[in-house]
Write a structure and sequence with these properties.
There is one protein chain. The chain has 5 helices and no strands. It is mainly alpha-helical and 151 residues long. Among the domains are: 43 residues; 35 residues. It is elongated. The chain starts with 5 loop residues before the first helix and ends in a 7-residue tail after the last helix.
Length: 151
Amino acid sequence: MATEPKAKQEEGKEEKKTKPGHHPNSLANLAPVFNSETAKEAQRKSVIARKANREARERLKITAKELKMDIDELMSAHNVTALDVLRLSMIKSMDAGDFDTAVDIAKSIAEFETPKLGRVEQTNVEITADDMSDEELERRLSELMPKKKED
């Protein structure tokens, strides 16, 4: 294995810009170095980011208005339940391509539709013949034994 000359190895790498009079590993090098070219580039990126944020806010406002409108329409036409709101939210999430949120909402809907069974407590009372009176014992025996038909 022959090693390439150092100049060729560093040719593809981006050169680190260091501030004059500072060590290359100095924290002062973390702050951006602005000149007219980098300032224009930073300004351009800032404008792009602000436009994207504004568009995202507008999309969110529209979605909130649609959701409010849909809920108002449902409320006026039907008696809306929490389950209806969850279903509407799940459909909106799927339309937006946010399948993780849609799955989380579907899990919540499943809990409403098929609730877990509650715990049933059983109490077993053991009664012996010694604990009953003769009348109670005779009554219980008659309940357990079918009456014979007399011909």
